[in-house]
Q: What sequence folds into this?
């Protein structure tokens, strides 16, 4: 058993974004992270290098672009992005957005947001 406490997970910054890696050290099948997207923040488009990349929206609304298609995620929505798909996102709303990011395979270094 390994307990990974939220309060002990370090926060990494990527421009305006924050990532908190939540993956237990003994787990390598996937990785889990909280992504905080402030108002006005962007994730520039990039090609996914992960077989599976899932974003679960817990707070707020965020606009994703996946392969040129615009998708609005709201609280409770889950978005799956496959390896090779181009994606990015923007918070054009009125509140900070909080996402849970699950990446398969894992673990992952912070730059693979």
A:
């Amino acid at each position: 058993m390994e307990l990974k406490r939220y309060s002990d997970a370090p926060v990494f910054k990527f421009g305006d974004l924050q990532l908190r890696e939540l993956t237990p050290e003994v787990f390598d099948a996937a990785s889990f992270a909280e992504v905080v997207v402030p108002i006005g923040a962007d994730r520039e488009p990039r090609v996914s290098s992960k077989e599976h990349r899932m974003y679960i929206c817990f707070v707020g609304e965020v606009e994703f672009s996946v392969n040129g298609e615009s998708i609005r995620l709201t609280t409770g929505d889950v978005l799956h992005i496959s390896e090779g798909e181009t994606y990015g996102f923007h918070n054009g709303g009125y509140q900070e957005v909080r996402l849970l990011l699950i990446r398969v395979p894992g673990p992952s270094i912070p730059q693979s947001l």
